[in-house]
């Protein structure tokens, strides 16, 4: 495992973003772990978060893109801090773009996009916090491709929960790849989290709960 991945796992725990216990997800599933990217709230946390995203994008997709698109609401700060970090780490100017929940009908920037206005030929990397079912991308993809004739270079998330998707056969990330034809990557996967924390923060009892969870909701 790359050093930055181990550092990111520790960073999630230290920032109280990755928690272990008993949580009810939006899907109704009872999970022994939960990740809330909204808990990154300080300047130093956001700076480091952008750097982790930038490193993962660079490792997985290279520099062949122009725009970072972050779906509202959590994706807005993610796209901003990652664009800043990408310039600092790799010297490349990247634009940020997000969608609005309500279309703005006045001013010079009216429309449904915030930040950069997508144009034909743009190469876009989408950034999200986590993908559980793929529902958010089903909502985001038509907004991005409907705004201009763009090329989606990939989707990056911070944590791959590695749960079975809506089709019940492969993970949500694999379903997105198969449905839309672009690669999906993560800074870390839940398997890497378990590998890094097993025997420490992840006790034998918690490991058993995680294994039981994946026996039910993982890919068979």
> Strand order of the main beta sheet, please?
5-4-3-6-7-8
Strand content: 25-35%
- Biggest sheet details: 6 strands, mixed
Low-confidence stretches: 104-108
Helix content: 40-55%
Q: What is the 3D shape?
A: globular
Computed CA radius of gyration, to the nearest angstrom: 17 Å
**What sequence of helices (H) and strands (E) makes up the elements?**
HEEHEHEEEHEHEHH
- Strand-pairing-aware structural class: alpha/beta
The number of helical runs is: 7
Give the overall pLDDT as a whole number: 90
- Count of DSSP strands: 8
Alpha-carbon distance between the two ends = 24 Å
Could you please describe the fold and organization of this structure?
The protein has 220 residues and is of the alpha/beta class. Helix content is 41%, strand content 25%. Helix 3 links the parallel strand 3 (67-69) and strand 4. Helix 2 (43-61) crosses helix 3. Mean pLDDT is 90; it is low at 104-108.
Key descriptive features of the protein:
220 residues; alpha/beta; 6-stranded mixed sheet; two-stranded antiparallel sheet; 7 helices; globular
